[in-house]
Design brief:
By secondary structure, the protein is mainly α. The chain has one domain: Helix Hairpins, CATH 1.10.287.310. It contains three helices and no strands. The longest helix is centred in the C-terminal third of the chain and has 26 residues. One of its GO terms (cellular component) is ribonucleoprotein complex.
Length: 67
């Protein structure tokens, strides 16, 4: 997921996507911790970075609105 693409979305879409990504990350962490399935540790890293990217763009948009 690229920041340029995220910047095209409005704040509602970004918040919804953050919520979805956090739920997916929680599920991945659970599967990884229990060892029920083979989970790729790189997926955890990718999800964390995507969430951080989403939150960064959301903060940028909120700063623009208040300025």
């Amino acid at each position: 997921m690229k920041a340029e693409k995220i910047r095209e979305w409005d704040t509602k879409e970004i918040r919804a996507r953050i919520e979805e990504e956090e739920e997916e990350l929680e599920e991945l962490r659970f599967r990884h911790a229990t060892g029920l399935t083979e989970s790729n540790p790189m997926l955890l890293r990718t999800k964390r970075r995507d969430i951080a990217r989403l939150k960064t763009v959301l903060n940028e948009k909120q700063a623009e609105e208040t300025a």
